[in-house]
Amino acid sequence: MTMALLLFLATAVALPLLLNEFGEWAPWLAVRIVRWTARRLGSRTDADRYTEEWEGNLNEVPGKLAKLAVAIGIMAYAPRLRGSLRWSRARRLESRASIPSPLTGAFVGREAELEAIVKHLRRRFRSRRGAVRVSVLAGMGGIGKTTLAAACATKLASSFPEGVLWLSPAERADLAPVLTLLGLAKVDIPQSQTEQMSLLWRHTAGRRVLVILDGAGEGREENQGLGRLRLMEARCSVLVTTRDTRFLQADSRWWKVVPVRQMTRRESFELLRAQGLAELGHSDLNLVSARLGDLPLALVLGAAWMRACKMPVSEYIKRFDQAYEALESQPRTPDTARPAWDTTPIVGPTWEISLASLKKHDPAALALLQLCSCTDGSPLQRRQLAYDDALPLPPELKAIVNVPAAYQQMLRSIAHHSLAEVNYADESIHLHRLLRLVVADRMSKTERSLFEETVFRMGTSGDALGG
């Protein structure tokens, strides 16, 4: 009799009360479940978006226990959604990464530096402030820091499934397009670069994304200070290339500075052979390597010229020496003295030879390079010049910009001599910073005024080299 009474009380009284109480709690629990699930999607922007969407869906579900069932279903589906969102973010970042592709065979040697950076960036650790891995490639201009960083990004691709974000000085000047790709609304993006950098670090915190700051300390960053990079706020993996490490807080235990060493003579030989000079003998390879200081950028430029013109080594060295003497004979004041990390005296003459040839045989190509040297370093596309007769362009360049075939031929001429990075798909051209310096030094005041006026009318940021 007692057992029957207990069974009656449990089924007729306690169970309905429990179900009723649980039913009252079910909607509250469902909301907590979807919020918890949204926070694990890997992005604050995605979390806010899906929290609002899922809570709206719950409000439309009739009943109380049904809401809980829907919330549990969302939680079960979340891992697939998280993977899809990660893939989507990675594709968006890849479209923006613009990782410089090293010239075929241009990356030789540097195994120790590559291994040190890769090992450091793959290392996982935890701290109260979150995972922070900042690696720094330091070395003089033209020594191959950007090429080495590109090799690191390629080798680490599998370790960063959410993508690689490559930011040059020009791209860091306005991070609005990057922040938009990360999911921020344009109205929420501040104008200040310092605030934009803080926002970037906040929205990459804890994510498996590699941010590469190429050329830190150049242009406006060099002239106005590097505090705007706010590296100590970073909570993701960061790779920095720089010529000058004075801005680095090297005492931070999470930072690793890897000096990019000078190439050995054997590596210089390998680089020249990879650039199409395999037929040269040991003595010629040694002469070119020694005269160009085993500097990768100068070696690539010299090889491109000798290969294109089929010029013997002796003739090239003669022209190089003439250009070198002309460059060094220019008067220098304390204000224009070169810092220790500037390699313009080596790479400058290699460019001078090619620029002199363009002046004689392809003045339109030279004019395009001069125009690029007056911008802030961003790639310059044909569409920015075409179909605007009001732009004050030199006649030889104005006659070509509206003829796609002729413009493409001009780009091929520039690329043939390794004078710039050319993208034939969007017809853009991007100059190395040192080449911009060399081209700017060769221009007269009249020429510079003309091209600065053109840049102003295009609405493009002006030259960042001089501040």
Automatic annotation (TrEMBL):
Residues 111-276 form the NB-ARC domain. InterPro entries: DUF7779, NB-ARC, P-loop_NTPase. Residues 357-447 form the DUF7779 domain. GO terms for molecular function: ADP binding. This is Uncharacterized protein. Pfam families: DUF7779, NB-ARC. Gene3D superfamilies: P-loop containing nucleotide triphosphate hydrolases. It comes from the Bacteria. The lineage of its organism: Bacteria, Bacillati, Actinomycetota, Actinomycetes, Streptosporangiales.
